[in-house]
Description:
The chain is of the alpha+beta class. It is built from 8 helices and 18 strands. The chain folds into 2 domains: about 5-215 and about 340-380, Antithrombin, Chain I, domain 2; about 225-335 and about 380-430, Alpha-1-antitrypsin, domain 1 (Roll).
Amino acid sequence: xxxxxxxxxxxxxxxxxxxxxxxxxxxxxxxxxxxxxxxxxxxxxxxxxxxxxxxxxxxxxxxxxxxxxxxxxxxxxxxxxxxxxxxxxxxxxxxxxxxxxxxxxxxxxxxxxxxxxxxxxxxxxxxxxxxxxxxxxxxxxxxxxxxxxxxxxxxxxxxxxxxxxxxxxxxxxxxxxxxxxxxxxxxxxxxxxxxxxxxxxxxxxxxxxxxxxxxxxxxxxxxxxxxxxxxxxxxxxxxxxxxxxxxxxxxxxxxxxxxxxxxxxxxxxxxxxxxxxxxxxxxxxxxxxxxxxxxxxxxxxxxxxxxxxxxxxxxxxxxxxxxxxxxxxxxxxxxxxxxxxxxxxxxxxxxxxxxxxxxxxxxxxxxxxxxxxxxxxxxxxxxxxxxxxxxxxxxxxxxxxxxxxxxxxxxxxxxxxxxxxxxxxxxxxxxxxxx
Length: 435
């Protein structure tokens, strides 16, 4: 009995904020060892990439109309770049269209990375404020009946941190999963959940992605201000959830439809003379380089999230980011955790995952079908994140003399971005923080 050739993509992404991670046994994990971050290289600008980020996010929401959501366009684009480096012809055209690349795109043109990230030095006993840890690794598991082109291996290993493993896919799913999970334990330093899905019969390739992001808020929320407060759902009913509170100088803007709050993550490592170190805050390239933030988009209407997301595009995003200005804000943010597995088939056009021509990757060349593509993310925020919020203008209503209140007590959308370029790393929404 013969089985159809299979191409399987499993994207395991873990995003974490807050206090130190523990294994399920309760044992505290060793401090993370920072590493170089693979970067997107196909896009000429962050704005060009953000077109893909927002459009693909809206496609995912079509089948997730009333639930919490979390998605990483950055992680998905990395995987698509890894494939595009080797494929040609119609398969290459499909990937370029999916990524919203311009018709003038040339695979041989080398764009600089969209943003800079310098891994902070390892610390045995990190303080509460520690620069973001951002890890991403990839592994390509392929049938032993193939070999990979050396040029493809060299390019993807260098630019995207890809490791390659020939494997006998006739082995049992349990045996194959254990080999993959050994790799995940090593590269994810014990923080990435294991592969649990069955390995389908006839599998030829399995592309596995690990991504881990952890950051502390620039100013953490004080625990004693966190209280149980109501959160109104789309149905009009309310749930009671732990809600953080802080009044602080931050970046903020609003218009007739939405309030926008930007909460930055701690970016630099203080050590030595505190007074001199404080002067380094605005210096690019300082220790732990890479400035990241969470931007929360809170519609003024309790049930306004759907309309806001439908009309949200790059022009709207750029206008709101340009409008942010510093202001004292009284902010109420619910603690939440989202765990979700997303079927990525909805991002591309029908038939996208079929007839993938791997002739530029494998010897002998092969055309694969029946792909499965998922992205699994676990994300949470708590008081240890950080808090500083940014503001803006552009025909925005007067703020008056009283500090504006930003009370996230109904569904809202959020983005995690690199602050200097605006590159969107993660997009999501909170419909019910109690789940």
